[in-house]
Amino acid sequence: MELTEQQIQRYSRHIILEQVGGTGQEKLLSSKVLIVGAGGLGAPAALYLAAAGVGTIGIIDADKVDLTNLQRQIIHHTGDVGVEKVASAEAKMRAINPDVKVKTYHQRAKADNIREVIRGYDFVIDGTDNFPAKFLVNDACYFEKIAFSHAGILRFDGQLITVLPGQTTCYRCIFHAPPPADAVPSCSQAGVLGVLAGVVGSLQATEAIKYLLGIGDLLTGTLLTYNALTMEFRKVRLKRNPECRLCGENPQITELKDEEQIVCDLKDCKR
Amino acid sequence: MKLIINGKETDFSDGLTVGELLVEQKVKMPEMVSVELNGQILRRAQFESTALEDNDKVEFLYFMGGGSGIN
Hints:
Number of domains of chain B: 1
Structural class of chain A: alpha/beta
CATH architecture of chain A: 3-Layer(aba) Sandwich
Order of helices and strands of chain B: EEHEEE
Structural class of chain B: mainly beta
Strand order of the largest sheet of chain A: 3-2-1-4-5-6-7-8
Strand content of chain B: 25-35%
Number of strands of chain B: 5
Oligomer: heterodimer
Distance between the termini of chain B: 46 Å
CATH topology of chain A: Rossmann fold
CATH topology of chain B: Ubiquitin-like (UB roll)
Number of helices of chain A: 10
Distance between the termini of chain A: 46 Å
Number of helices of chain B: 1
Strand order of the largest sheet of chain B: 2-1-5-3-4
């Protein structure tokens, strides 16, 4: 791929970085990242990855934009309320950077479709809000051998870890299975500082770009935790778990299935 | 004895188990916490039987959702 004059200008601040350069920028332009969830975490990740010139960005989400989303899901604007989130996200990414090819999947990520959706992507960003979905992304990326960034946010706390499936600590190594229904409050029940999603989603985008460029140290085997009130970042080293049901010595999970969990929010209860 | 919990040193009475520590730390719902002891993730079934020792490093790891609903 040869950069055009326009692209050399657009990406000049990347290109002058020794660790990126013209070659790195070309690499980004030929890379593919899938974002699961066009919400709080997916919004900043999608915007920054589009601006960075990641050539193909896929985004999967079954929801429509709701007024309560706008406090943190900065890819959606007031006029987008009621619009499919993937369509709203696609419009903003195209507006930021027409170089980017956006693929939208207006559907729920489920055991019977997610492997086909993520196949062919170089990196996956988990921007989902519920635990069955987080385990599903973890397991699907393991079976498809695709590197991904996991993250979670609640109230003033956020955390993320990067997983190279089969090589580094996975989500199931740490958390064996989804917690019982309602044991963990969701953001809609407990609240979340809007900008926290921006911080953590942007960190996920950073990991994606580093992975695609092959630069720096990834958050592999390392959970980065952040508290917005104390402004403390901590790196917690986490070794692979030999008893992990997915990637341990005696794996019991050999195929993808949906984990059941009732997700409640303020408006309704749905399974 | 001294324990290092999520990077902070705190004093506790000797012989405390992981299960008892969760109670002392006022973790209301232990099912929402994973525990790493000196670099090893514990099984939930080990919480009550695992006695802590001086200078043990304990990490409480919390379930966190967030992002976007895809259900």
